[in-house]
Amino acid sequence: MVSDSAIERIKIEPMDEYNQKLVSYVHPPDWINTQPKDYYDLVVIGGGTAGLVTAAGAAGLDIGLKVALVEKHLMGGDCLNFGCVPSKCIIRSSRVVGEVWKAKTLGINISQEIEVDVSSVMQRMRKVRSQISHHDSLQRFQKLGIDIFLGDARFLDNDKIEVEKKTLKYKKAIIATGARAMRPSIPGIEEVGFLTNETVFSLTQLPQRFAIIGGGPIGCELAQAFHRLGSQVIIFHNHSHILNKEDIEAAEIIQNTFIKEGIQLVLNSKIQYIEKTHNGKVIHYTSNNSKLKTFIVDEIFAGVGRRPNIEGLNLEAVGVEYDVCKGVIVNDYLQTTNPKIYAAGDICMNWKFTHAADAAARIVIKNTLFSPFGLGRYKLSNLVMPWVTYTDPEIAHVGLYEQEAQAQGIKNSTIKIPLASVDRAITDGETEGFIKITHKKGSDEILGATIVASHAGEMISEMTTAIIGKIGLSKLSSVIHPYPTQAEGIKKAADTYRKTLLTRTTKYFLGLLSKFS
To answer: In terms of Cα–Cα distance, which of 85, 299, 294 is closest to 213?
Structure first.
């Protein structure tokens, strides 16, 4: 049976009916680890997206594979418990506020001030999360024929893993232990206390003054959401603009949106130290080499990056190389320096997205179980990976940025269609944004795309499909898009490319054809 200490630490505040339901699915306190089989074809360490997809994918083939899954905390990992699901619930509520703010420009006058019930917003989030949690439950995966072990896993030798004093013998092993929020190295921050993605969703009351450290995707998403829900939000970012890893024009739109909405930005900042006073948490900082300034807040959220969960695995015993910052070292086949052990997800990849972990898990299944002598293995580098930052508007991207293509020696051209020229965006009052497509110079081959739009995340898949299917801009121009939709902007971009083909010579031949038709 799992030790009492392991059970006691699995609490998600507040422990209301919804979080109790969640825990009953993803780490039930009465769970008893089964007696291990003589050996396993596959032992997966980690019950987040990468681990769950790997285990379910292997077991679901129904060919008699023996699969074990080890999880020390919560099944579903960050995505279900502390990431995608809870954050999008809160963002959904905050978008309603954004619509109300925009209402007057659409001819709707709201006579009274809107009232945001943050307690209800957070309760809805917990309810939705608990409703979804059965998909990642121990019970569901047990029904798939997977042996599930709750507890800490550590490698003993090249074919054994120990979990709660039980030994699992394996033919192949997968490390999918994910990553966690980094703790900022700011003097005083540990003493005053701060939130991360693992604790921010336990809030039941709104922080009136809320500091966000880090202007990356997570920090920006939560900053806008909490600002719209009623917090006075200030973002401290150590670069000259927020979302500095995104397309600079896309990031500028979001930055200007934040400023218009009243979010305070402190750029090129360095927090010197933080202290607690009777007035709140005092942040002492400099910006652009300014004199020391202060800002007082009630809560602090740290979104300064992720650190891989490698501790306690005893990787040295099996010759698996790792880096404390980058995680487990893998090759393009997701194989570690031990040929029997693979890794997938945040523990080893730069793409720290749920859909990236899912795609990596499918590579691992193929490469560990169905590639004898290394034949027919899949490569991580062959993936075409889209991603979305869920601000309002959203930023979605896939493929190469212009500067990346140039760095690779690929001559390229870029077509940019402002949403202000797309009829549906105009009627929606959502003209802040664009569709930008980079293609190989002298060719219609699509290299990458960036979309800034209210639902850019829903639009980017068309571009991903085009890149994977090698559908060029000429072919994309022939795709009929319903009118009016914002996705019609993609067709406008493709049509723009087609017009570049109308050279003097092609016009001459078209003229001849028209005369004989």
So the answer is: 299
| DSSP helix/strand/coil, 122 | helix
**What is the total residue count of the chain?**
517
Q: Is the dihedral of CA 332, 334, 337, 338 positive or negative?
A: negative
Place of tokens 């017009």: 499
- Give 151's Cβ-side CA count (13 Å radius): 22
Strands 147-150 and 67-71: parallel
Question: How far is 313 from 45, CA to CA, in rounded Å?
Answer: 9
pLDDT of residue 328 exceeding 70, the answer is: yes
C-alpha–C-alpha distance, residues 430 and 13, integer Å: 38
Total Cβ atoms within 10 A of residue 439: 22
Identify the helix (H) or strand (E) that includes residue 225.
helix 217-229
Q: What H or E segment, with its residue span, contains residue 403?
A: helix 402-407
Helix, coil or strand: residue 236: strand
Q: What's the rounded Cα separation, in Å, for the pair 152 and 204?
A: 31
Map residue 266 onto helix, strand or coil.
Answer: strand
E-assigned strand segments in 143-196: 147-150, 153-157, 160-163, 166-175, 179-181
Which two tokens mark 334? 């997701």
In one-letter notation, the amino acid at residue 438 is T
CB-count burial class (<10 Å; 0-12, 13-18, 19+) for 199 = middle
What would the pLDDT profile of 451-505 be if each residue is shown by its tens digit? 999 999 999 999 999 999 999 999 999 999 999 999 999 999 999 999 888 777 7
- Confidence category of residue 111, pLDDT binned at 50, 70, 90: confident
pLDDT of 412 > 70? The answer is yes
- Between β-strands 67-71 and 394-399, what pairing exists: parallel, antiparallel or unpaired? unpaired
| Token pair for 301 | 């959220």
Q: Which of 158, 174, 180 is nearest to 70 (CA)?
A: 174
Helix (H, G, I), strand (E, B) or coil at 215: coil
Question: Tokens for 148?
Answer: 């599930």
Q: How far apart are CA 480 and CA 482, in angstroms?
A: 7
Query: CA triplet 300, 133, 169: central angle to 5 degrees?
Result: 100
Query: Comparing C-alpha atoms, which of 132, 50, 26 is closest to residue 88?
Result: 132
Smallest CA-to-CA distance from 460 within 404, 389, 356, 386 is with 386
pLDDT at 101 over 50: yes
| DSSP class of 9 | T
Which sign, positive or negative, has the C-alpha torsion 73, 76, 82, 86?
A: negative
CA nearest 240: which of 191, 287, 194?
287
pTM for the model: 0.94
For 474, 498, 505, the CA distances from 514, given in Å and listed in that order, are 21, 19, 14
Question: In what helix (H) or strand (E) does residue 60 lie, and over which residues does it extend?
Answer: none
pLDDT of residue 154: 98
Place of tokens 């500028």: 252
Q: Tell me if 341 sits within 8 A of 172, measured CB to CB.
A: yes
Strand 166-175 relative to strand 341-343, pairing: parallel
